[in-house]
Amino acid sequence: xxxxxxxxxxxxxxxxxxxxxxxxxxxxxxxxxxxxxxxxxxxxxxxxxxxxxxxxxxxxxxxxxxxxxxxxxxxxxxxxxxxxxxxxxxxxxxxxxxxxxxxxxxxxxxxxxxxxxxxxxxxxxxxxxxxxxxxxxxxxxxx
Length: 143
Hints:
- By secondary structure, the protein is α/β, with parallel strands linked by helices.
- It has a single domain, classed as Glutaredoxin (3-Layer(aba) Sandwich), CATH 3.40.30.
- Helix content is 39%, strand content 24%.
- The protein has a 6-stranded mixed beta sheet with strand order 1-2-4-3-5-6.
């Protein structure tokens, strides 16, 4: 299933969209010369996930950075009942990346290699983005 979650920044301009289809996101990252930011969140049950989403994930500074260098993928571990195929797809991702807690964030290179994995952070959005900007140099786009 591919669902894009569009977010609006504070100025009303459409910001980066969150996808749920990792293979499509990887293909987009390769074509556009971007990294994949894969967020394992439990937005309906994890306090830390909700806090990150509200304070960083939806912030204008993070969205602007994502527009430059990231393809955003949301792997939500919801407590709500979902179609079996969605639950199975999420479980496969959890196993593939050995996710032990929520939230967990991965940054993947366009070739799928893991650059960074981390858990919750209390860093303000501007500090979080500054750290990502220092780590993630711009990539060439596919010709």
